[in-house]
Amino acid sequence: MTLTRSRAVLVLLALAGLMWIVSAQTWIPAEANPAAGVPGVAAEVGTSDTATSPVLTACAAVVAVTALLLVMFGKLGRLVITGLTALAALGYAAVGLGDVLAGEATTAWPYVGIVLGVLGAVVASGVGLGSRSWQANVSRYDRDTSAAGGPGNGPEDDPGEDVDPTRAWDSLSRGDDPS
Question: Any transmembrane segments, and where (predicted)?
C-alpha cells in the first residue's frame, strides 16, 4: 500500500492523537515519588501528584503540525518536515525510555510511549521516502501549453482560418481567455 498525500497526513495525525492521549495519562504515580506527601520533606520544584511531562505533549503537537504541513511543500520541504516529524517522535520515545531506564516506570504508559514514538519515526521516515513520488499541486488555472488550443495552435494565430465554435467553447471550458 503506497501512502498518498492524504493517507500520510491522516496516519500521522492519528499517531499524534494517540501520542496526545498517552501523554495525558499518569506515567509515574505519586506513590513512586518518595517526597510526595511526606511532611517535613521538601518536594522537588515542578512536581505534582501525577508526573506527566510537558515534553510529551509538545512532541505530539509537533507531529500533528508537521503532518499538516506536508501538503504545503515540495519535495525538499517534505523531506525536511518528515525529518522534524521523525525527530519529534524519537523525542517522545526517549522520554518513555528515560522513565523506564530510571526505574520510575510503574505503569505501562512509558512502554506505550516508546512504541508510539518509534512507530511515529518509522512512519515519518516512510512518508519522507514515499513522498518523492507525489505530484506537485496543479491548479486548474495552470494550463498545459503543449495541448491543442494553447498558444500557437489557436485560430487567432492563423488569420485565414474561421473560428470553430466548438474549439472556442472548449478553450473557454479550459479557462483560456478568448479576447
Answer: 55-73, 80-102, 108-130
